[in-house]
Structure formats: structure tokens, C-alpha cells
Write a structure and sequence with these properties.
The protein has about 500 residues and is an all-alpha fold. The protein has one domain (about 1-505): Up-down Bundle (Growth Hormone, Chain: A). The chain contains 18 helices and 4 strands. A two-stranded parallel sheet has the order 1-4. It has a two-stranded antiparallel ribbon with strand order 2-3. Strand 2 (about 300) and strand 3 form a beta hairpin. The longest helix is centred in the last third of the chain and has 36 residues, at about 445-480. The radius of gyration is 22 Å and the shape is globular. The two termini are about 30 Å apart.
Length: about 500
Amino acid sequence: MKSRFFSKAPEGTAVLFFIQIFATLGFAVLYSTLVLYATKHLNLGTKEATALMGVFGAFNYGLHLFGGYLGGRFLSNRNLFVGGMALQVIGCGCIASGTLPLFYVGLALFLTGSGLNVTCINMMLTQRFTSDDPRREGAFLWNYAGMNVGFFVGFSVAGYFQATESYSSLFIFATLGNFVAIVLATASWKTLRDRNTPLLEVSPNKFTTRLAAGIAIVIGLVPVVWFMLQRPGSTETIIKGICALVALTLIYLTITHADRREKRNMTAYLILTIGSLMFWSLYQMAPSGLMLFAVHNVDRMIGRVEIQPQWIQNINTVCIVIGGPLLASFFTRMRARGWNIDIPKQFATSLLLMALGFLILPVGIKLAGANGLSAFWWLFASYVLQSIGELLISPIGYAMIGKLAPRQYQGIMMGSWMLVTGLASLFAGDFSGMIPEPTGATAVATNPGYVKLFAELGTGSLVVGIALVVLNPFLRKLITDKAEGEPTAVEAAPTTVGPAVPAGSIE
């Protein structure tokens, strides 16, 4: 099935799939190991480690906004991607040293690179499709599956080295994986060239000036990130403030946008983005709050094998790798038969699945044995439900940008979409800070705290999911490809009028 898909896909789609696999390895290792490495090797406290994890996610995803703006304006997307991967390689090497000072240096280098280059892959993929190309959604689902192949390998290797706490070898492995991504991108340099970006339209002199400015911005970000990583409390406040400013900016751009069709689509984007914030705030608890729950309150023995914490996250990757292509094929068949499977329905369903994933955990805790340890299968089921929800919101969200974003805002809206995940990471850190302190306590003693937290979070996701279900008809009216001059009933409302450039002129 893969070969048939790529044989019909635009040039560059296949190589981006394989680049995505290797580009993900370093992030997978750090994402799954940071809290354990910080507490077991660097001797940081649990609260400090979970706060650092929240800031890690916020920077990684938040810097995607910078990547969306720099790519195609100051640096080509392929240049920015390779430069970011080079920073990741150096950063992993520093972290492998095992000392606290170099840990912060390496983390700053890694996060700057990772934060800037992920948007580049999505933009390079987006640029290969016209707005009405039905293959775009499938391409993003395939690429998302490639990302999760990288996660699967990274999580598996991380769990293996976690058993012996061979962290230096683990980070060297991550370094090598990221280097392979650079080799693949360099080998396909001409294939991955930018298409129809603002940078291609400037004069040679302005091109050189923008290139120098872009490099200076990338290098200058490293010490800023290094400084803020060591002050997670203040950093969290600043990032939340930045997110609020970005939200206000997008609202202003939407209200003042001239094209009515684009304005309607941008309004739908804002509503769906708000809904996605709830989903990602719970999803980002996997490497912090849910991991601590798994370590201290779940029976991880399957027969004679103890499931390592990082391996639990592979439940998600397996579901994504298998489910991504199957879902793409399923959507194609159902739509061919006339089924209306649209973006609002997919988003609402994802939130309802996330709600169910959290609401079954208190049930598992209530049915725990005398030692207070929940059966592993409850956590397994929760991850499966969350993963199906992820397939309905994450790759669909990336593909949504190509449909709803006007050409001049595509990079910014792609970055903003990913910035939401960064903000969600901070909220996930806040939620994880509410969990009972595991040190010196038994599972029986901490279980009531988990029951309360999981029930409240699951209920919150349920409420937002139901709200999106109710808003589905309104959102379907906003998301339109009708040409100007074909007004709908929704256009009569001054806050919802507007059309959208077919994302076919995508950069």
C-alpha cells in the first residue's frame, strides 16, 4: 500500500516520510527520558523535573511559531531544517556528557533546533500539493506514521538503556539518528526546494540580508533558551503571555481580513484551535503525570517481563503507525461512498475519545488489588483511546492549515497551531503538579488523588467535546470553498463573514 501511495504522490513526499523517521529519534529519546534522567541521574526533585518537562514541551512546540515565520522568509525551509538538525546533533552530544551544566547547554541547543525545524517539514510537505488535491490528507497521515516509527524506535531504545541507566549511550544513539536525517535531506536537496515562498521573490541583495538575519536569529535564540530553561517558573509565565499575544494577533488578523471566504475559514481555525488546546493539555501528560502514575501506581509486570516506562508510550506509536495508513484509506473509501467525514466531526470525536481515555483510569484504580496497583490493561486502554483521538486531530490539523490558511498566513498559522501544543505542555505540567507526591508514599495512599484528578480532566475534555458537537453545523458553514459572491446564511453575521484562498497557492 505504501509503494502505491508514494508512486502517485508528488515528488519529495517519499523522502520526507523517511526524513521524518530519523528526525524524530532524538526528540523521542528526550521526550520519554527527560523526567527519569533528571531525577535518577541529575538528582533533581520530582516537582522540578516535571516543571522542566513542561518548559521543554513549551519551547519545542512554541518555537515552531518562529520556524513558521523564518522558513520561507529569512531562510529556505530546507536550510532551516538542516541547520536545526545540526543544533540537535550538537545538543545531544552535550547531554551525553552527563553533567548538569552541559545538560542545560545541550538542552538549549536541542530545543532551538527541534523547535525551528519541525514546521519546515510540514511546510515542505504542504508545498507539494494544491488546495484541492485529495492526496494531501493522506500524505500527512503517512508522514505522521513516519514520525511515529521514529518514536517507536526511540522509545524502545530508551527503555532498553533505562533498565541499566546507560544514559550516555542512549544520547549518543539519538545523535546518530539525527545525523542520518541531515544526510537524507542533503542527498535530496534539489527535490526539497521551496515553492512559491516570499523569499523566492526578493532580490539577490535582500536574499543575502535575510539569510544573514535568519542565521543570527537562530544562533541568538540558543543563549535565550539556555537562560530561561534554568528559570522554569518565570519562563512559564512569559510563554503563556506570548501565547496570549499570538492569539490576540490571530483574532485581529481574522477580524480585519478583507477576503470574506478566507475570513470564514480563519474563524473556523480559531474555534478548532481552542478545542485542540484541551486535547493536547491532557495528551502532554504522558511523559510526566501519566509516567509517574505508571511507575508508582500500576502493576507493570506482564508475565515475567517488567514493562519499562518508555515502552508504555509505544502503545501510542504502534496505534499511530498502524492506524494512520488505515485511517487514510478508510476516509478515502467512506468519502467515495458519500459519507460526510469533515474536520469538525473529527475534532469533536478526538476530544470525546480523550475524555473516555481519562475517565476509565479512575475505574481501574477503584478495581485495584490490596496493594493499590491498577492493572496494566486500564492504562493500555487509555493510551489506545488517546492515540485514536490523536490520529483524528494532529495530522488532520496539519492538513487543515493548507485548506483554511490564506497564502500569506500559512507559515504563521502552522506555527501557531504547533504553539498551541507548547502551551498545552505547560498546562500538562500544571496538571502533573497536582498529582500526589510519590516519594515515601504507597499506591493506596496516592490513589484517591489520582482518581480526583483523572475524573476532573476527563470531564473537562467531555464538556469541550460536546460543545464542538453542538457547534458542528456552524463550523461546517464557516469552512467553505465557495467563490466570492456566493453568500451563505452565515455571511450575514459580521463576525463570521469571509472566504478562503484555496490553499492551492501554498508555499
